[in-house]
Specification:
This protein is mostly helical. It contains 6 helices and no strands. The protein is flat, with a radius of gyration of 25 Å.
Length: about 170
């Protein structure tokens, strides 16, 4: 019953006041509870959030006592967070995800420029007053152009890879 344990340790932590040993033990056990809850979670995002809570409680336990077991557990939890983040980033860095993100960011930039020009039209101030806004938009546009070059390189590599597959090995999505 992890939720019951969580509530019990949170209550103990809140009532501990000056009892450093109780505060330490409650923090340590809360770190364990959240790490165990992460094991039972289905969503990678939920797992990472629970592991971050766990790491926070282990840090608190270390701060309170310098306990070596808390340090070891913190390192394990941080390693699990890095591994989960790497898995999520692999999915987020594929060709389709990057192209979708580029399109979304380009549309957002277009909307920002429209808002800036609308503010210029509605304002009696000189357009030079909005120079910083336009420079920020130009910087973002340059980064989007660089990202489009990366996407182009990735897509040509994928096309070459598909072209070199025998017809019998190609899938419908190819």
């Amino acid at each position: 019953e992890w939720s019951t344990a969580e509530q019990g340790f949170l209550d103990a932590r809140n009532r501990a006041l000056a009892d450093a040993e109780l505060r330490f033990r409650a923090a340590f056990n809360l770190g364990m509870v959240y790490a165990q809850q992460a094991d039972g979670s289905q969503s990678p995002e939920d797992k990472i959030n629970l592991l971050r809570k766990s790491a926070g409680w282990f840090r608190d336990a270390i701060r309170l006592s310098g306990d070596n077991d808390a340090r070891v557990n913190l390192e394990i939890v941080l390693g699990r967070i890095r591994a989960m983040a790497d898995q999520l980033n692999q999915a987020n860095n594929g060709l389709k995800a990057r192209l979708d993100r580029l399109i979304r960011d380009q549309r957002s930039l277009r909307d920002d420029v429209r808002r800036i020009t609308g503010r210029i039209s509605a304002s009696a101030a000189a357009p030079e007053r909005f120079q910083d806004d336009f420079q920020a938009a130009a910087t973002l546009q340059r980064s989007l152009i660089a990202e489009s070059g990366v996407i182009y390189t990735m897509s040509t590599a994928e096309i070459d890879q598909i072209d070199h597959k025998p017809q019998t090995e190609q899938q419908p999505e190819d």
